[in-house]
Design goal:
Blueprint (H helix, E strand, L loop, with lengths): L2 E4 L3 E7 L20 E5 L9 E9 L7 E10 L5 E11 L4 E8 L13 E11 L13 E9 L24 H6 L2 E7 L29 H10 L4 E7 L15 H21 L4 E8 L8 E3 L6 E2 L12 E2 L5 H11 L3 E3 L18 H6 E9 L13 E3 L1 H10 L4 E5 L14 E7 L6 H9 L3 E4 L5 E6 L2 E2 L3 E5 L2 E8 L6 E9 L8 E4 L3 E4 L4 E11 L4 E3 L3 E6 L2
Parallel strand pairs: 10-11, 11-12, 14-15, 16-17, 17-19, 24-31
Antiparallel strand pairs: 1-6, 2-7, 3-4, 4-7, 5-6, 5-8, 8-9, 10-20, 12-13, 13-16, 17-18, 20-21, 21-30, 22-23, 22-25, 25-28, 26-27, 26-29, 29-30, 29-31
């Protein structure tokens, strides 16, 4: 077998997904997604025999040769101590590969548990070998982490239960509760594609990204589908370099037609919103490429940005932006007032002058969101049952430590015609009570970072600091009180609460500050950020936006 287990007894099997010819509309556009991918899939609870199957998914679309993947899976305590680990080396070609690990945690009644009951963390780190002497420690491309329960964990410490968001009059009581009641939460998806780029594939035969502009369904159909499935907003984020109808460069493309298609998408969103108050259709672009680059969404640009030119040398966009030049892009976004979201960030992306995840003041002003998780981009499910999700908390933490002021979002990256319906995860946006859901109020909320990410559309989470809402930046003297406010429904409750702390600009590690819903302390002088993550008893997680504190000496 190509992989071995370490520390615990494990049965490992490897599966190579069948190489099935895709429909023509699914073939041409995959080079934009040509990057090494690794996904960790694990049940939160073991079965009644104390067993669970952990599946590692590896993929490198359009790979031209067999490559070797080094991977390491670790079981961690909250403090980062490694309790168990598995590691391996796996051959990977163009077809996806699954590695299955069977792990017994001795959770059956009457048997001694190998670990105390509680919530632990599984972390997968994986990368492609690039030369002799490669190790997983110096060649990490992907890091995925998920919580798992061992035994029957004790309930999390008491957490404030009153609904944090309400349309009723603000109640009397603590300032934090009054502030929380001043907002209404709207839930939606800020990452999807239609037939304006490589999305919109009919569910009956959608197996991946579509050849650009080949599918039948566009933005209008996407907004209607999302609204019928209970979303409050949907962003169709079309790949900026596919408006010429090609995943490469269409030498014969007509610049006027390219730009007109983008404007037609803006018009489609505006038209839908006028006819459907209470739902917000957002049309924008996903800029960049994943291979040696990184995708980000631009939510409110009236211009199509690009770097491609036809055979006559004409720009196939409204405004020229050099490929992979993030410093120039951030400066333009800041100048124009455009807002952005880091999509599925990895540690090797968004480089400036060779430094990945590099901070600039322009980028800090323009980028407001970081995608902390995605459901399977090529899922065809419409009942919110998609089991595969990717976690990007490690990348978002690096961006926060670099100095970015970003809130967490949770999206689906739909390429098939199931916009927002593959999973129950959502991005929650808080708009001031009494204000309608419009483009203006929505963008104002994003600028204020009043956003939370949730895997459970029925659960809500905020964090306050001395009564001030998450997303805020303020000076503080003396004690600081962090308060987590969570509301769950349908029998869900917190299994674990974590308050995290970091220092913007330090480029270090985010650490656990507390495992309780309330923390009172005096920070050290200087800059800090804090955010909360709640893990429910079904394993689904929620992330608050951070708060940013400048602690002043007394």
């Amino acid at each position: 077998m190509p992989a071995t287990s370490v520390v615990s007894a494990t049965i490992l099997t490897v599966f190579c997904c069948a190489c099935v010819a895709m429909p023509l509309e699914s073939q041409a556009s995959e080079s934009d997604h040509r990057e090494f991918e690794a996904v960790l899939q694990t049940p939160f609870h073991a079965d009644n025999k104390g067993m669970r199957t952990i599946t590692l998914h590896f993929n490198y679309p359009d790979s031209e040769q067999t490559q070797q993947v080094r991977w390491r899976l670790e079981l961690l305590r909250d403090d980062g101590r490694v309790l168990k680990h598995w590691k391996g080396r796996q051959a990977l070609a163009a077809a996806p590969v699954k590695v299955a690990l069977r792990w017994r945690t001795a959770e059956r009644a009457g048997t001694p548990a190998s670990l105390p009951a509680g919530v632990y963390r599984l972390r997968l780190r994986a990368g492609l070998e690039s030369g002799i002497g490669d190790t997983i420690d110096n060649n990490i491309h992907v890091e995925q982490t998920w919580d798992v329960a061992v035994g029957l964990p004790r309930p999390a410490p008491t957490i404030t239960r009153p609904p944090p968001f309400s349309t009723a009059p603000a109640p009397a009581g603590p300032r934090a509760a009054q502030r929380a009641a001043q907002y209404t939460a709207y839930l939606g998806n800020l990452h999807s594609q239609t037939n304006h780029s490589d999305g919109g594939g009919a569910l009956a035969h959608c197996t991946g990204s579509q050849a650009p502009q080949s599918a039948a369904l566009g933005p209008t159909e996407a907004y209607g589908f999302a609204q019928r499935h209970g979303l409050d907003f949907l962003m169709t984020s079309e790949h900026n370099h596919m408006f010429d109808g090609s995943d490469g460069t269409n030498a014969g493309a007509n610049p006027a037609a390219v730009k007109a298609l983008y404007q037609s998408g803006i018009h489609a969103a505006d038209t839908w919103n006028l006819a459907h108050p209470g739902f917000l259709g957002i049309y924008g672009q996903e800029w960049g490429v994943t291979n040696n680059g990184g995708h980000l969404n631009i939510l409110n640009s009236g211009d199509l940005l690009g770097w491609e030119r036809n055979a006559a040398g004409e720009l196939l966009a409204d405004t020229a932006t050099p490929r992979n030049d993030y410093a120039t892009l951030y400066a333009l976004m800041r100048q124009r007032g455009w807002l952005g979201q880091f999509n599925h960030p990895r540690a090797d992306q968004f480089a400036i002058d060779g430094k990945p995840l590099a901070w600039t003041p322009d980028g800090d002003a323009a980028m407001v969101l970081c995608e902390v998780m995605n459901s399977n981009a090529f899922s065809t499910r419409t009942d919110e049952s998609e089991p595969q999700h990717s976690n990007y908390e490690a990348g978002c933490n690096k961006l926060l430590e670099a100095g970015y002021h970003v809130a967490f979002s949770s999206n689906q990256d739909n390429h098939c015609a199931n916009w927002g319906a593959s999973s129950g995860n959502r991005t929650g946006v808080l708009i001031k009570r009494g204000q309608p859901l419009t483009a203006d109020t929505f963008l104002a909320a994003l600028k204020a970072r009043r956003v939370y990410a949730t895997m459970d559309k029925n659960a809500e989470l905020i964090l306050t600091a001395n009564g001030r809402m998450m997303g805020e930046r303020f000076d503080n003297k003396g004690r600081l009180t962090l308060q987590v406010r969570y509301t769950g429904k349908r029998g869900q409750r917190p299994a674990a609460i974590n308050l995290f702390a970091g220092v913007p600009g330090r480029n270090g590690d985010v650490t656990v500050l507390s495992r309780k819903a309330r923390k009172v302390f005096t920070p050290r002088a200087g800059e800090h950020f804090y955010y909360a993550r709640v893990t429910q008893n079904d394993g689904k997680m929620l992330w608050s936006a951070p708060v940013w504190i400048t602690q002043r000496p007394r």
